[in-house]
Amino acid sequence: MQGAEPYEPIGCSRCSGSGYRGRVGLYEVMIVSERIRTLILERASVDDMVAVALEEGMKRLRDDGMQKVRDGLTSIAEVERMTTSLI
Q1: How confident is the model at residue 9, as a pLDDT?
Q2: Nearest-CA neighbor of 58 among 25, 29, 27?
């Protein structure tokens, strides 16, 4: 993340020492376009569907998390914690 200053949580009594207030979701949404619909009907592999979805602009879960790091909403450590088991 060139040029970004990553957020690191600092706890307080209001957040019970977590450094976070409330929750922020990380999202990966795949729009079912005509191309994706065709792949589904053809019983294509998930990898093929994901490749097309990425071509069509889908953001991966980790990418959404890193954008939220850049926006100062969460930390790199939290994104890693929430997405590492998915790789």
Answers
A1: 65
A2: 29
Please tell me the distance from the alpha carbon of residue 56 to that of residue 83, in angstroms, as a whole number: 22
* Integer angstrom CA distances of residue 26 from 20, 33, 36, 81: 15, 22, 22, 12
CB of 25 closer than 8 Å to CB of 18: no
Residue 10 region by backbone torsions, left for phi larger than 0, else alpha for psi between -120 and 50, else beta: beta
Domain range annotation of the chain: 26-86
**Residue 78 · residue 8 · CB < 8 Å:** no
Specify the pTM: 0.69
Could you report the average pLDDT of every consecutive run of 10 residues in the chain (87 residues)?
Answer: 62 70 84 96 96 96 92 87 75
- Which pLDDT belongs to residue 7? 62
